[in-house]
Amino acid sequence: MKGIELVGSAQAHTRSLTRTLSHQRRCQAHPILLCPCTVRLWAWLTLNSPSKRFVEKDLDVSVAGRSFMITGANSGIGKAAAMAIAKKGGTVHMVCRNKDKAEEARADIVKESGNKEVYVHILDLSETRKVWEFAEAFKKKYKALNVLINNAGSIMSQRDVNAEGLEKSFAVNVLGIYILTKSLVPLLEKSPDPRVISVTSGGMFVQKLRIGNLQSERGRYDGTMVYAQHKRQQVVMTEQFAKTHTNIHFSVMHPGWVDTPAVANAMPDFHRSMKESLRSPDQGADTVVWLAISEVAITNPSGRFYQDRRVVSTHLPLAWTHSSPLEEQKFMSLLEELAKKFQPH
Ligand SMILES: NC(=O)c1ccc[n+]([C@@H]2O[C@H](COP(=O)([O-])OP(=O)(O)OC[C@H]3O[C@@H](n4cnc5c(N)ncnc54)[C@H](O)[C@@H]3O)[C@@H](O)[C@H]2O)c1
């Protein structure tokens, strides 16, 4: 996979920046970090990626004999990552919600990569008990898992709950990742050079960790902000996992703004106005693949946040989004309690 190239024309970027800045001015009544247009400004500033400093040979490795589980691997960034890893010879476990879409994506990957070691597993990550059941069964069936890529993500337009009474996007974006990772830790630890990568979003920059309303029961439900909160929770979860599971290399990354069905469906205005500047799924998957397969990625400490193959801060300058160690530990305890509640005996 090539590094990320400059996308969109300078003119388009200038038009987009002008629109963004004028919107920014109109929103001055809001605290700046709560304002979604801050994210647009930040998105614009990060569209042109420093691909020139990417070292192509970082990805010049064979991963034959190593296995990779990728959630949401039938579409967008997940499919692009699955394709790139299959081309490098890795065994790919695609964890997908929809069987037909998953099989179709698998056929594309096998055809284009020539690699038949691509397996489909059907799982709806919003079904909390089933996430446990799936991970436990996987552990029994397979002897190794080298890399887990928590890529699937969900934004809801209105609040909905799953069979366990949990807010659905929380179940997918946070508890699903927690359970899948926790349950697979023993298998990962048995495997050489284990890694866990989670795909967060720059949207998390506008959110401070909030642990008092994990189910989004109180206040008006704003799906985009709920999603951004979950993405902040993924960053904190990664930092905490890195502290407790020191044999595994954890990382969390922002893929840039990528033209995928998720963006088109969940943020149609953003998609319309930024379409010409968005990255392709391959470009969005570049850092996922780099974190999953390159040797240089694991020379960085575990638990870090990445953008364009580089460790970056998890907070914008002067932001009030920092949480205390106590809040972070409490958050992990709440996840543990919730996860245990639905664990099969
Ligand atoms: N596209 C972007 O600009 C962008 C920016 C930041 C972060 N992200 C993140 O990238 C990741 C991949 O998204 P994408 O942009 O490729 O979109 P996408 O719609 O192409 O992929 C999302 C995948 O998640 C799967 N998924 C959603 N809910 C699921 C569930 N309940 N159970 C199982 N699978 C489920 C979907 O089926 C799909 O395969 C997400 O975590 C998203 O939050 C994307």
Automatic annotation (TrEMBL):
Residue ranges of the TM segments: none
Protein's name in the database: Dehydrogenase/reductase 12-like a
SUPFAM superfamilies tied to this protein: NAD(P)-binding Rossmann-fold domains (SSF51735)
InterPro entries in the cross-refs: NAD(P)-bd_dom_sf, SDR_fam, SDR_member_12
Organism expressing this protein natively: Oryzias sinensis
